Amino acid sequence: MAKTIPENFQDLLSKKALADIATIMPDGTPQVTPVWFDYDGRHIRINSAKGRQKDRNMRARPAVALAIVDPDNPYRYMQLRGEVIEITAAGADAHIDALSNSYLGKDYPNRQPGEVRVTYVIKLSSVSTMG
Amino acid sequence: MAKTIPENFQDLLSKKALADIATIMPDGTPQVTPVWFDYDGRHIRINSAKGRQKDRNMRARPAVALAIVDPDNPYRYMQLRGEVIEITAAGADAHIDALSNSYLGKDYPNRQPGEVRVTYVIKLSSVSTMG
Known about the structure:
- By secondary structure, the first copy, chain A, is α+β, with helices and mostly antiparallel strands.
- Chain A has one domain (7-130): Pnp Oxidase, Chain A, CATH 2.30.110.
- Chain A is built from three helices and seven strands.
- Chain A has helices at 11-14, 53-60, 92-104, and strands at 19-24, 30-35, 38-39, 43-49, 63-70, 73-88, 117-130.
- In chain A, strands 2-1-5-6-7-4-3 form a seven-stranded antiparallel beta sheet.
- The longest helix of chain A has 13 residues, at 92-104.
- Chains A and B meet through strand 1, strand 2, strand 5 and strand 6 of A and strand 1, strand 2, strand 5 and strand 6 of B.
């Protein structure tokens, strides 16, 4: 099983595809939310805010899974599984702006008062593709 | 927290939106896959094939979560959590054809030799909407 995103699916990275990320709740049940993401060739990075449910879930239980569907073809997608190996507020403000510029073409417009942005680095353990 | 899909999000049901469904692996980690779905006003139904990973996961651990994103607006979506309350092969062949007709406009074209189709009925415990 591949542990990186194959060349022929890397177009999804520039197509503003969302990732639906699953995390595990305290009772062991799943939670899924759509998120922006980027990829450095080895790791997926996402960004959230301290205290949110998925933040609390990933701090306590680092196993995650993601589905990334081609916005131009719903039958072409990747399924990824992995583990959050780093959780940091350092650089996370700049990171949400970088993601927002990539997805929306402008700095992140939805900051909440007092919000602490957080970056999560995900090490992939399996990548499978369809379509 | 709502336990049904609100009126103002029911348009997603006819828009051929995919659901990304999370199930729980034997080791407690999550798995996410895009699926077709329908909704009877109370329950979400999906369809898979006997023996697949998500089939095995849902038989052993019925808690699931789904994200359903508006194909026309990625910032409008629903997050659902619930439990699989029924798993049946009865009617599941007709069900995959009904789903396929709804999404593709024709009977399901991808049946595999020996495949046993299965319908999963999901009782919702929470529905939240964004956008």
